[in-house]
């Protein structure tokens, strides 16, 4: 099966790519079969989709905090729509779209599934939701096997997300011990996301479906902190910064408020649908995943 991957130089795309796959790159990187261009270049996309059986669309503007509505619209929505047109014209049979749980409303303290009502809160989320709609419509219109994946925050070696930044700060010794607030945050290792993508591309019953991809167990931020210290072989700490101090620091600015909310608030999502319908399970546990992310060898 000839596979075409966008975003192949990104965190998930580079793990998904295998020798023999075609790859969209914005500048040459030396991959066999690479096609130089971007999602706004219709001619390049048409050429890249020729002879392709399956498209894994990982590319996009990944900065969920950026407030540039026009840029999110152009890259994450229009770019996806351009790729769908090229894929349909070329007769591509399967299309897997990497969306995000940010395409959903914010869940608050409750565990959310794919049917959570409400609209996304950010420009990034709104563009991803519109792109999801375009994918589903193309599936019906052109008879393509289409699947939407909504990963929770993804971690692993090479990632640059909040979990990696937190771990780097813990390793450097300046990240303070956080209070245990009982919050719940979902994460998933990149290897499990790649496994989910390959599975949904192959299974007929996944056609037209949207799946949250997450470790079934959420973690409090303090649990993540303690796990990082354990992996880095740092002594466990029994004390913590008072929650009231952190809340007060969050009142300094909107940016500080958002940072504190990420540390103390919940973002909890259920992978029950993909588990039940396809038998997918997250296989990489937290400690093993952190070791891989931080490139720490297992103790013998």
Total strands: the figure is 11
Shape: globular
Largest sheet: 7 strands, parallel
CATH topology descriptor of the domain at 3-158 and 187-215 and 269-275 = Rossmann fold
Strand content: 5-15%
Q: Are there runs of 5+ residues with pLDDT below 50, and where?
A: none
Order of secondary-structure elements:
EHEEHEHEEHEEHEHEHHHEHH
The overall pLDDT, averaged over residues, is 94
Using the CA coordinates, give the radius of gyration.
20 Å
Helix share of residues?
40-55%
CATH superfamily of the domain at 3-158 and 187-215 and 269-275: NAD(P)-binding Rossmann-like Domain
Strand order of the largest sheet: 3-2-1-4-5-7-10
Characteristic terms for this protein:
13% strand, alpha/beta, 300 residues, two-stranded parallel sheet, Rossmann fold, 11 helices
């Amino acid at each position: 099966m000839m596979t075409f991957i966008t975003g192949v130089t990104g965190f998930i795309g580079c793990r998904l790519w295998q020798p023999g796959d075609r790859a969209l790159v914005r500048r040459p990187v030396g991959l066999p079969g690479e096609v130089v261009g971007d999602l706004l270049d219709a001619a390049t996309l048409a050429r890249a989709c020729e002879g392709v059986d399956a498209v894994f669309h990982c590319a996009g503007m990944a900065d969920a905090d950026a407030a540039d509505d026009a840029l999110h619209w152009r890259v994450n929505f229009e770019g996806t729509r351009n790729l769908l047109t090229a894929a349909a014209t070329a007769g591509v049979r399967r299309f897997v779209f990497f969306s995000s749980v940010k395409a959903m409303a914010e869940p608050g303290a409750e565990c959310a599934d794919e049917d959570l009502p409400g609209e996304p809160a950010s420009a990034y989320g709104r563009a991803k939701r519109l792109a999801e709609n375009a994918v589903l419509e193309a599936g019906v219109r052109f008879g393509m096997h289409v699947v939407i994946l909504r990963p929770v925050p993804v971690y692993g070696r090479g990632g640059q997300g909040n979990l990696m930044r937190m771990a780097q700060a813990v390793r450097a010794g300046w990240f303070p011990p956080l209070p245990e607030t009982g919050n719940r945050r979902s994460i998933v290792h990149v290897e499990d996301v790649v496994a989910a993508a390959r599975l949904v591309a192959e299974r007929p019953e996944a056609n037209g479906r949207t799946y949250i991809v997450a470790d079934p167990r959420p973690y409090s931020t303090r649990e993540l902190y303690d796990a990082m210290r354990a992996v880095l072989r740092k002594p466990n700490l029994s004390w913590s910064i008072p929650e009231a101090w952190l809340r007060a620091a969050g009142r300094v600015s909107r940016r500080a408020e958002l940072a504190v909310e990420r540390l103390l608030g919940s973002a909890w999502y259920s992978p029950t649908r993909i588990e039940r319908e396809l038998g997918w399970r997250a296989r990489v546990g937290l400690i093993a995943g952190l070791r891989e992310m931080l490139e720490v060898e297992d103790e013998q």
